[in-house]
């Protein structure tokens, strides 16, 4: 089903909708709930001013125009839907809709993309990995299957995209620009990065980029008790703090995300502060272990949690979904070559698929502890 909507008037225009600082622009548009991937979902108020800033940015970022067809992936209860629905219709583009069941399998998703021929797709990395896995592999005299040529822009957010998997997507969408968008529900998208295809080979991570034009992003240093205070100027790692119209109350909002700003000026996601644990007296960010696990060529999904062990106290347990052959011993050896001993999980469990929340993120609470 393909729907076309007219572009609504821009907030702050001559239609009396109110400018960025106007009372109507600051009114509540809706309430979203966080995904609950690491805790209980919580309500987040979203204002018209925030939606105005975000949708205008998206239109400029990818050059959305009436000729575009945007694949509708997210339900309205998820923040990714603001792009699908509002930015698309504001630009006067076409919203290409598919049945929700088509997201359940890579094959159904592949067929929906082929039938609807979207030019722009925005989704979570796990969705794109599922799609790539369903495309025909290369064979004798036949190249690997590719996304239909109309796809010119792919945006992803919500979780870390392993560079190897992102490179596989890039190879299947040779004409598409790739964008990494970052931001918790409480800030909407606050940083962005256009991926350099040529730099994907051999890299261990993809940056979350630079602050969006409407967002002020700063880093706060953390002491041993994880209480912020001193602002970090220049390169360094700290808690990301965001202010701007898309942020709850305008900010500053403390994201509880550890983010590093490197010498190149780009931000890099380093995991959740509230997921940090002490193992044998050392502070460990499970996300770093996940990234090392995901770097193994046989691993397509990875998750790590802390569990209580009757003999050893708190330990790490890893979970993987495989795309090739690898046993627990091989995976532990892989980690031992890259991480200190206290960061290597005591056990690594293989699963067909890692559990997901309705938004497509890994559901850590559903992993067997």
UniProtKB/TrEMBL annotation:
Residues 1-11 have a biased composition (Low complexity). SUPFAM superfamilies: Acetyl-CoA synthetase-like (SSF56801). Residues 24-249 form the AMP-dependent synthetase/ligase domain. It comes from the Bacteria. Residues 1-22 are annotated as: Disordered. One of its GO terms (biological process) is secondary metabolite biosynthetic process. GO terms for cellular component: cytoplasm. Residues 288-361 form the AMP-binding enzyme C-terminal domain. GO terms for molecular function: phosphopantetheine binding. This is AMP-dependent synthetase.
